[in-house]
Amino acid sequence: MANFKVSRVETTPFEGQKPGTSGLRKKVKVFIQPHYLQNFVQATFNALGADRVEGATLVVSGDGRYYSKDAIQIITKMAAANGVRRVWIGQNGLLSTPAVSAVVRERVGADDFGIKYNMENGGPAPEGITNKIYENTTTIKEYLIAEGLPDVDISTTGVSSFEGPKGKFDVDVFDSTSDYLKLLNYDALHGVAGVHAKRIFVEELGANESSLEDFGGGHPDPNLTYAKELVARMGLSKTHSEPNPPEFGAAADGDGDRNMVLGKRFFVTPSDSVAIIAANAVQAIPYFSGGLKGVARSMPTSAALDIVAKHLNLKFFEVPTGWKFFGNLMDAGMCSICGEESFGTGSDHIREKDGIWAVLAWLSILAYKNKDNLGEGNLVSVEDIVRQHWAIYGRHYYTRYDYENVNADGAKDLMAHLVKLQSSIDEVNKLIKGIRSDVSNVVHADEFEYKDPVDGSVSKHQGIRYLFEDGSRLVFRLSGTGSEGATIRLYIEQYEKDSSKIGRDSQEALAPLVEVALKLSKMQEYTSRSAPTVIT
């Protein structure tokens, strides 16, 4: 058994190590700076306190991106030096975000890189912890690291044992899919999602391995912009004609927590996806056969889920952006299914969004809808399911405009302008009618504020909302006001319950509200941008 000593390494703070909703994410070139990773890891240990770190078990893994394996070795050595009792590492250092949550719950009870810290429930750390981590990053003077502890072979499963000043320290390299499996035509892009996809869809469910594709070298983001090969294969490319697309396609991102669902020549919006899963869960997914405890969505996500909850008499929650808010509801037994517009969907089987689970949920719904016509007749398709849903619940036409790296002062002024407008709804409606007479009246406008029904904590300034009489919405959110500029996100949602109007082109249906949003906010005046950076 190898012995190690603890070294104290002097350091100074780095600016900007403030965790977001799910950890710290920066370019690789930032993380590989000397002491940068170590500072953040030590700040995390310091924020938790010795009583929660010493003798604890830590899960450390990544999604296979560059620098992941180096980071795993560094974090393992720092864990040993800080008194952690054991570290669990997914084989080859691979473990998706949902699988991490599954491992914690089961065992305990590309050019971007990031660190996420999850709590004992398997969910993201709450704001109280992330704020304390950030405070520590601004004052850190030293970090601890094990000296004499060799790099662990993470390619082979097994336990390695060491002895340090505070006693025994074990590193357990384990099969990264087994615990996840206990709680659960697909494209995994590339990253750790592909490891789980092969085990689940090929080895467990008997799918042909040719139905799995690795989008090697591409940016692992499951959306219409970056999953170009899948989009083309499903017959949705504007430049490439696909004569015979598959009936079903899906993509997950590099760490397996986000997802995109497609049918033959048909795209399912994330907001519709979570609503359709909730509407069909009890009948189609055995896990929910006893009923749903409740449903929840992030505030910017369309209100499609709200309508389902009302029809089915379910508890409904609208929360700020950030998966930790869903986790609180789930721990309290108040929520079974949740989702967000940024391609995240999940359930209470774990405390993270889960891309592969969402794909399995859709396959279960397809199987249920086709249980009486397998082998004969036309299959009920993804498009059929979505259009049937719209016929019952109405359609929420939806788009998001991102204005990235705009002048931070201009972005703040735009948001202040929108808040000021809210002081008089009558004046807002006069302005709107002057822009488009065919747009409904605003009936409520505010800055979204959330009081957690579980712990009573309050989250303020979560976005500016304009709610219309016909159920439509405009939402403006500001993120990032650092040296690289700010990002303004504009969410535009037009609700249509007239069944004769639910088949319109989305951009055509949204055009009046888009015009109102841009002119009401004076977007071009404040940002000097004539068009958004990204439209989704």
Automatic annotation (TrEMBL):
Keywords: Carbohydrate metabolism, Glucose metabolism, Isomerase, Magnesium, Metal-binding, Phosphoprotein. InterPro entries: A-D-PHexomutase_a/b/a-I (IPR005844), A-D-PHexomutase_a/b/a-I/II/III (IPR016055), A-D-PHexomutase_a/b/a-III (IPR005846), A-D-PHexomutase_C_sf (IPR036900), Alpha-D-phosphohexomutase_SF (IPR005841), PGM (IPR045244). Residues 1-20 are annotated as: Disordered. GO terms for molecular function: metal ion binding; phosphoglucomutase activity. Its cofactor is Mg(2+). One of its GO terms (cellular component) is cytosol. It catalyses: alpha-D-glucose 1-phosphate = alpha-D-glucose 6-phosphate; alpha-D-glucose 1,6-bisphosphate + L-seryl-[protein] = O-phospho-L-seryl-[protein] + alpha-D-glucose 6-phosphate; O-phospho-L-seryl-[protein] + alpha-D-glucose 1-phosphate = alpha-D-glucose 1,6-bisphosphate + L-seryl-[protein]. One of its GO terms (biological process) is glucose metabolic process. Its EC number is 5.4.2.2. SUPFAM superfamilies: Phosphoglucomutase, C-terminal domain (SSF55957), Phosphoglucomutase, first 3 domains (SSF53738). Monomer. Catalyzes the reversible isomerization of alpha-D-glucose 1-phosphate to alpha-D-glucose 6-phosphate. The mechanism proceeds via the intermediate compound alpha-D-glucose 1,6-bisphosphate. This enzyme participates in both the breakdown and synthesis of glucose. This is phosphoglucomutase (alpha-D-glucose-1,6-bisphosphate-dependent).
